[in-house]
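fyi for ur records
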Amino acid sequence: MPTWNELKEYTRSKYKLSNDEAEWFGIVFAEKENRSQKIIVRKFTAFDKEWIEFRTPVCKQDEMSPVVALRKNAELAVGFLALINDTYFLVHNAPLDSLDPDEFELPLNFLAIKADELEQQYSAGNDLY
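which gave:
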């Protein structure tokens, strides 16, 4: 999937997009126990290349200590926790030009599952995202 438009077409063919904007799109995953998790995929430029970012909210800043977030980062095989404004997000970045379907699907699905697990643990079980 070497271009952004090809990635979007691939994603539209497999998922219903909750948002479909020029520079980003969203997918809502149905999780167990009537829960859901929204993943935002956006493109950005770094090192003179196009990249994609997967981003999904986990909990508010005051619901997880920075030490716990750093320890969780050491356990994650894919992605990392990032504090953006007052919310922790699970984030993963990948270069767009060499992205293959597995390099898209694996982080997309892993982040949805893992973020929902963390959300249940650290946001008093709320399904806010």
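The longest strand covers residues 35-46. thats all i got for now
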